[in-house]
Amino acid sequence: MSSLTTTTTQTRSHQKILYITTTALFAALVCIMTAYIFHIPVGSNNGYVHVGDAMIYLAASILPAPYAMIAGGLGGAMADFLTAPVWAPATFIIKMINVIPFTCKKDKIVNTQNVIALVLSGMITFIGYFIAEGIMFGTWAALIPSLLSGWVQPLGSAIVFLAVGTALDHIDFKHRIFNK
């Protein structure tokens, strides 16, 4: 085997390990930010507002989609297992889907596509939980209070994402970590 092939194999292996460890780190951040930090209970259905979605948005802007989907889905589901286990299956699916509008292929975390993705992902969260609540509670009329508070979480997470993403862009985070 030539040294070029060995070097290429080692580089791919290093990149995969870096993606896996970063995925685990983001899953933990999503869980902690969702379950404990800025965790504000709202409503009568064990719901709460958090900024854990900001970590999902960051993961989606830094990692390739499959890794970001795992980080978001597992992190969100783990938080629900700790706080409101009945929501874990719905959260796992919704948080994985939240990643789809984002791109990690640009040099900057905060870019036009990811700013637009904040709106789309917020809509995914809002609609996803609206559907999940309707299925779980068997009625759509009881969901009217959720309509008012359903935008607080994505909006707060979008603001945190923009602040942290801009700070990371200023230190050229993506290039330093992933050599992009």
Structure description:
The protein has 180 residues and is mostly helical. It contains 8 helices and 2 strands. The protein has helices at residues 3-35, 52-62, 65-83, 88-98, 112-137, 144-149, 152-170, 173-178; strands spanning 40-42, 47-49. A two-stranded antiparallel sheet has the order 1-2. The protein starts with a helix and ends with a helix. 34% of the residues are buried.
Based on the model shown, name its key terms.
single chain; 180 residues; mainly alpha; two-stranded antiparallel ribbon; 8 helices; 2 strands; globular
Strand order of the largest sheet: 1-2
Residues in helix, %: over 70%
- Identify the overall geometry: globular
Structural class: mainly alpha
Low-confidence stretches: none
Rg over CA atoms, rounded to whole Å, is 18 Å
Distance between the termini: 27 Å
Q: Beta fraction of the residues? A: under 5%
How many β strands by DSSP?
2
**What number is the mean pLDDT?**
87
Can you summarize the main beta sheet?
2 strands, antiparallel
Number of helices: 8
Give a brief description.
The chain has helices at residues 3-35, 52-62, 65-83, 88-98, 112-137, 144-149, 152-170, 173-178, and strands spanning 40-42, 47-49.
What's the topology here?
Elements: H1 3-35, E1 40-42, E2 47-49, H2 52-62, H3 65-83, H4 88-98, H5 112-137, H6 144-149, H7 152-170, H8 173-178
Antiparallel strand pairs: 1-2
